[in-house]
Structures are given as structure tokens and as C-alpha cells.
Amino acid sequence: MFSFQDQFSAATKSHFDSQIELMNTLTSKAFESMEKVIELNVSATKASLEEYAATAKQFSTIKDPQEFTTLAASQAQPNADKAVAYSRHLAGILSSTQSEFTKAAEAQIAETSRKVTTLIDEVSKNAPAGSENAIAMLKSAVGNANAGYEQLTKSTKQAVETLETNLNTAAKQFTQAAEKTTRTSKK
Predict the structure, then answer these.
(1) Cα 20 to Cα 25: distance, rounded to the nearest angstrom
(2) Among residues 77, 107, 148, 175, which one has the fewest Cβ atoms lying within 10 Å of its Cβ?
């Protein structure tokens, strides 16, 4: 049978290894997300430059103010649509990343919690008489840590939902402003 020190040493090593694995997983997910955002930005920039060149060519052939107004108005709605598509794609990347982070963290917390509970149960079976209060306090501390994690998870999910809502609201407002500009310039 292992001594308490051996049990805690093994549990500490296992926990440390799990933390390193979690950090590696989260770092990998963060880099994947950054790659997606960079790819999105490069694509959007490339498309914008190509469209700018074509639009600049069109503007260079304008002969009167009415033509200018018509061409400017015709650009408003497509630009708004592109901005909406960009913001939705970005929100999708952020949401996916948050989901993957949450999934990895929840799996890690569940495994760590299971191991700690098993260790506490094992220690409590072999604990000397009179240590019941200490074991109860340890179990309570683990329970409180789990409750704190659950609250953090809920708060993170709410923050991401708020970000997505704000991005969608901004995109909607931008689209409405572009539509208004288009309607005004056509009159």
C-alpha cells in the first residue's frame, strides 16, 4: 500500500501532466483560430483591393455629378453585404474557438475532479481517527472549486454570446445604413 506522500506525489504529477496537456491543447486551438482569422483577413483584403481597383477605374470615367452619385450608391449595398458576411465569418471563428476551449477545459476539469475525488476517498479510507473534519473540509474545498469553475464557464459563454450579439447588431446597423444611403441616392 502506498503512503499518503506517495499518493499525493503521484496525484500532483498526474495533475501537472494534465495541466501541461491542457495548455498545449489550448495553445494549439488558439493558433488554429489565429490562422483562420489571418486567412479571413488576407482574403478580405485581397478582395477589397481587387474591387477598389475596379471601382477606381469606374470612377475615373465619370463625367458628371449624377453619375458619381449613382455609382457611389450602387457600391453601398454590396459593401454592406460584404461587411456583414465578414463579421458573421469572424463571429463563427470566435464562437468555434470558444466552444473548443470550453470543451477542452471541461474535459480537463472533469478528469481532474474525478482524480481528486478518488484520491480524497482513498485517503479518507486510510485516514486516522479524528481527521473526519479535515477530510470534510477538503471535500468542501473541491466542491467549491468545481462550483467556481462552473460559474466561470457560464460567464465565458455569456461573454461570447454578447460578443456575437454585438457583432450581429453592428452588421445589421451597417446594412441598414447602407440601404438607407442607397435609397436616398436613388431619389
Answers:
(1) 9
(2) 148
